[in-house]
Amino acid sequence: MNHYHLFPDVSPQESADYLAKKLACYTDAADLAEDLRQQNPQIVVLDVRALPLYEQGHIPGAVSFPHRTMTGETLAALDPQKLYITYCDGIGCNGSTKGALKLARAGFYVRELSGGLDFWQRDNLPVTRGLPPGRWPVADAGGECGC
């Protein structure tokens, strides 16, 4: 059976519009790592998992902000001019989506990290342990995805 005809074709413009919107809502490990290397002050990385998981390992510089604790009151402490990148364990976890949705509904700029911490580690990017957010290492492991 030819599955090509199961769905209607979309125009090149419809494809471009959809893909642009998708890229506006997601980032990947390589792009985020480059922003962190450049110390982009507009980006805040939020680890939205439970605190014990954050302590076991998180992206350098990420702030622990479990999605379950996000309320109008707790979100009021955030800067509405920043871009927030949410992440959780990986594609089997929807915590980053829940956190991103809460942020977006509260009026914040937000993107999700594709693949979460799992894909971050698959790209051999650094991880920090403990409570302090840490910072990007001066000499990092690279993590080029090749795309």
Automatic annotation (TrEMBL):
Residues 39-129 form the Rhodanese domain. Gene3D superfamilies: Rhodanese-like domain. It comes from the Bacteria. PROSITE patterns: RHODANESE_1 (PS00380), RHODANESE_3 (PS50206). One of its GO terms (molecular function) is thiosulfate-cyanide sulfurtransferase activity. It holds the Pfam family Rhodanese. PANTHER family: FAD-DEPENDENT OXIDOREDUCTASE, PYRIDINE NUCLEOTIDE-DISULPHIDE OXIDOREDUCTASE. This is Putative rhodanese-like protein. It comes from Tatumella ptyseos ATCC 33301.
